[in-house]
Design a protein that fits this description.
The chain crosses the membrane at residues 29-57, 69-91, 97-117, 227-253. The protein is mainly α. It is built from 8 helices and no strands.
Length: 254
């Protein structure tokens, strides 16, 4: 991984080790969706904690380096901590409910994040159209969005450096940090709207999403993709079974 570029650190000789990058993106999306739906009813810490632990064990096989994972997963970690804090302060289950809320949110977010950053955008679009039968227009939108993520990261760095060159530094003032952050965020929003408008015009000019298109590559479904979905189902069943056996299972609206 370079100094300022987000990439997957997957050496050529490490292809067997980083097996997650070789899975069909459609299978990874289905697994992430199954985990998200499966964890909705469980609000205890054990069920979500077991799922989160197993997902964390797969991170070394994803080819994602720590810096990239922390940078992209930071907002979700902040959301989990915020959710746990709110539930601890205002919830009825105290610390146990707070931990359960935070762990469940992270267990739902992490599989989707791994599915996105370990998949090639073009293969993701092919998998959505060919395997999941998603209409081509939203599939092309997903492809465009994934292609724009590195561009937005570069624009964020450019905005930060431009403001720093103008002497807009927060120093040690936390209020200035927040004010300047939202200023950069607004500038990035404006840039992203302009970029999205240009991209949409270019895609319409090339007739993307107007009808059936041929595919340069075939999205292949392998045995490992089926095993991933089977393993995901077994993980959810095992998490619920363990939580019920320990007597910690708490269901939503129960």
């Amino acid at each position: 991984m370079g100094g300022d570029t987000l990439t997957l650190d997957v050496p050529a000789e490490g292809g067997a080790r980083y097996w997650m990058t070789g899975l069909n993106p459609a299978a990874k999306l289905l697994a992430a969706l199954a985990i998200a739906i499966g964890l909705i009813p469980a609000v205890d810490a054990v069920t979500g904690g077991l799922v989160l632990s197993v997902v964390l064990l797969t991170v070394p096989f994803s080819g994602v380096d720590r810096r990239t994972l922390m940078l992209l997963g930071g907002p979700f970690l902040l959301m989990g901590l915020s959710s746990g804090t709110v539930n601890y302060l205002y919830g009825e289950q105290g610390l146990e409910g707070a931990v359960g809320a935070a762990v469940r949110l992270l267990a739902i977010a992490l599989p989707g994040l791994l599915a996105a950053i370990t998949s090639d955008p073009t293969e993701m679009s092919d998998g959505l159209v060919q395997r999941l039968k998603v209409p081509e227009r939203p599939a092309m939108g997903v492809l465009a969005a994934l292609r724009l993520i590195p561009l937005l990261a570069d624009q964020w760095r450019t905005i930060t450096l431009a403001r720093r060159a103008r002497g807009l530094e927060a120093g040690y003032n936390p209020f200035n940090v927040v004010r300047l952050f939202f200023g950069r965020l607004f500038a990035l929003l404006v840039r992203s709207i302009r970029t999205g408008t240009l991209l949409a015009t270019a895609m319409d000019a090339r007739a993307f999403g107007t009808g059936p298109r041929t595919h340069a590559r075939i999205s292949r479904w392998r045995r490992a993709d089926t095993l991933l979905l089977v393993g995901t189902g077994a993980l959810l069943i095992g998490a619920y079974a363990l939580s019920a056996r320990l007597g910690t299972l708490v269901l939503l609206f129960s």
